[in-house]
Design brief:
484 residues; Lambda Exonuclease, Chain A; Nucleotidyltransferase, domain 5; 3 domains; 5-stranded mixed β-sheet; 18 helices
Length: 484
């Protein structure tokens, strides 16, 4: 339903599909793990997927047949129950029989029910009931983001179950019409002529971007960050493909136009007086600091909630004086135990009691420290003292006092580094983003291979160190800009 061209490609040209990123794989794994955990809400069931071999040529039809056997033999709880009707297959997370009536449950690792999930449940209901099994109710199970772990995991409190049968029934006719339409698309001799558009990103990034976006030229208008997709597609469809083609008079905001003008002039915009005012706020010693956190869907430690940011690593580059030697301090938690107190105590030791603490885009670091303050109130005064020393290195760029066209209207540290210090990048690193670092550390919680643990930890250290070294280099660029 997102895009009929994507469906056509998936069914007929699957080899053109974009490879899954590490982040996408992590999202899928998280969903699978949450689904398995939710089975404990209805313990003692039979898992259809475990009695059918995936190597079978008729894997899906065997899943359907095996599900029917379990239902006919009197099973009351079935996991991964498969149903097929009118050539449409669905696999339901949990099917439960209570007082002779069947109840369907679909599990999501999200904390809220979206329209996409409702359409998913509508399809499940349509196939299951039309295949001959009446359903008393259809529900979606999500994660309760207000649950706080205390001791053993409380499955009943971790999950929330919400009936969506009324919404599902309203959409039955719509889903049947969609199925008829989409079947016609699949068997068509012609690929649907669907131009690129907002559907490429909503509700999910398309699997065939590499195929459909080949015609988009380099330095296209889509390189401008921070602008609504609808505005960019309006320009693109009006014939403005590249940044140079965008007219002087346009409806884009001030920031986007600063980027456009800088790109056309191929020159940086530098406001020396404002940059000097920023630099005057800094006092030595200087600490360049960056945190890494992870957000387990299922809370691992006491007094944490689902998807709470848990700090596990920091990097600090340190200069005692302007001409002083650059030093490096770091912390990386041991896997398997709550890292928060050890993180905090190590940080307070390394950060000292005076000097400016430079962070890049301060919100995350502030939120982490404020969270630690609530968890460990005995450290409140120390944490407040640290927070009062913060200066945000993003400000000169966010306020356009230093703007380079290669920043592409984005102020992430990676874009700034690419624009100002292109010789220093993240391309040589195995872990090259915060989201990958987050996934990597979370994977260590269940990793038993010591060699793999050592490798991941080394890669985490290299990544976080690169972030703070990038900050050092970026500050040097700012300092040089006011001396020219």
């Amino acid at each position: 339903m997102q895009c009929v061209k994507s469906l056509y490609l998936y069914k007929n040209f699957i080899h053109l599909r974009d490879p899954l990123s590490a982040q996408q794989k992590a999202v899928f794994n998280r969903g699978n793990n949450v689904g398995v955990l939710a089975q404990k809400l209805f313990d003692g069931g039979t898992d259809v997927s475990k009695v059918v071999t995936k190597r079978s040529e008729n894997y899906y039809s065997e899943l359907v047949e095996q599900t029917k056997k379990f239902i006919d033999s009197g099973s009351d709880i079935i996991y991964e129950a498969a149903f097929q009707h009118n050539q449409v297959l669905v696999i339901l997370d949990i099917l439960v029989k209570k007082d002779g009536k069947w109840f369907a449950y679909e599990v999501k690792s999200s904390t809220r029910i979206t329209q996409t999930y409702l359409i998913d449940a509508t399809l499940q209901y349509w196939v299951i009931t039309n295949s001959g099994l009446p359903l008393e109710d259809m529900s979606i199970i999500i994660i309760n983001n207000q649950y706080v772990r205390k001791g053993a995991l409380n499955i009943q409190e971790l999950f929330k179950t919400q009936s969506v049968k009324s919404e599902v029934l309203l959409n039955q006719e719509m889903i049947e019409q969609q199925i008829t339409l989409l079947k016609e698309v699949i068997v068509s001799a012609q690929m649907p002529n669907i131009p690129i558009g907002e559907q490429c990103f909503s509700p999910y990034n398309c699997d065939f971007t590499g195929t459909c976006w080949k015609q988009v030229p380099p330095a296209s208008i889509f390189d401008i960050s921070g602008v609504q997709k609808s505005e960019l597609f309006n320009l693109y469809n009006a014939g403005y493909k590249t940044i140079r083609q965008i007219p002087e008079e346009n409806n884009l905001d001030k920031n986007a136009n600063i980027h456009i003008q800088a790109y056309k002039k191929d020159a940086a915009v530098i406001n020396k007086s404002e940059i000097k005012s920023f630099l005057d706020k800094l006092s030595y010693p200087l600490f360049f600091m960056d945190f890494e956190t992870f957000m387990p869907a299922v809370p691992i430690y006491d007094c944490t909630k689902p998807y709470q940011h848990i700090p596990f690593q920091y990097s600090i580059h340190y200069k005692k004086t302007e001409d002083g030697t650059l030093e490096h301090f770091y912390f990386l938690a041991e896997q398997g135990s709550d890292p928060r107190k050890a993180f905090l105590e190590s940080l307070l030791k390394d950060i000292g009691t005076h000097g400016t603490i430079l962070v890049y885009d301060v919100l995350m670091e502030k939120n982490v420290l404020n969270g630690l303050k609530q968890q460990y109130p005995e450290y409140t005064a120390d944490i407040e003292a640290v927070l009062n020393r913060f200066v945000d290195l993003i400000k000169p760029f966010q306020e356009k006092n230093y703007y380079h066209p290669n920043m592409k209207n984005s102020f992430s540290i990676k874009n700034i580094l690419h624009a100002l210090v292109p010789e220093l990048s993240y391309t040589d690193l195995q872990i090259s983003s915060g989201s990958i670092a987050m996934t990597a550390f979370e994977s260590l919680q269940t990793e038993a291979d010591m060699f793999k643990i050592i490798e991941v930890r080394e890669n985490l250290l290299k990544y976080c160190e690169r972030d703070t070294l990038a900050m050092v280099k970026v500050l040097e660029i700012l300092e040089c800009s006011v001396k020219i």
